[in-house]
Amino acid sequence: MAALLDRADQAVSVTAMVRGFSAKLKEISSRTTEKLVIFKDNEPAAVIINIDAYQEMLDELENLRIEAVARERLCEFDESQAISLKDMRARYAKKD
Fold first, then answer.
1. How much is the pLDDT for 6?
2. In the chain, what are the domains?
3. Residue 13 — pLDDT band, cuts 50, 70, 90?
4. What is the tens place of the pLDDT at every residue in 41-80?
5. In the 3-class helix/strand/coil scheme, how is the chain assigned residue by residue?
């Protein structure tokens, strides 16, 4: 959680968020501010980020998951069971 705040201007109390919600939402949606960490009782309670930044984060997470699966499969790859491209094409060629 130490990396939650890069800058002090990314922190906002619940009270300040309620009072200036429209302005804070505009900052986030325009990406003027990358993220807002909302504090309640001096503890981080939530993070608000731009929807595009959120989607980018989800896409990156999915790419990392796919890469992890690929790495795992490569470690378990048994070359003796591999099929050549020529054999694969012959096996799955369209039959008219």
1. 62
2. 2-75 (3.40.1620.10)
3. confident
4. 988 899 999 999 999 999 999 999 999 999 999 999 898 8
5. CHHHCCCHHHEEEHHHHHHCHHHHHHHHHCCCCCEEEEEECCEEEEEEECHHHHHHHHHHHHHHHHHHHHHHHHHCCCHHHCCCHHHHHHHCCCCC
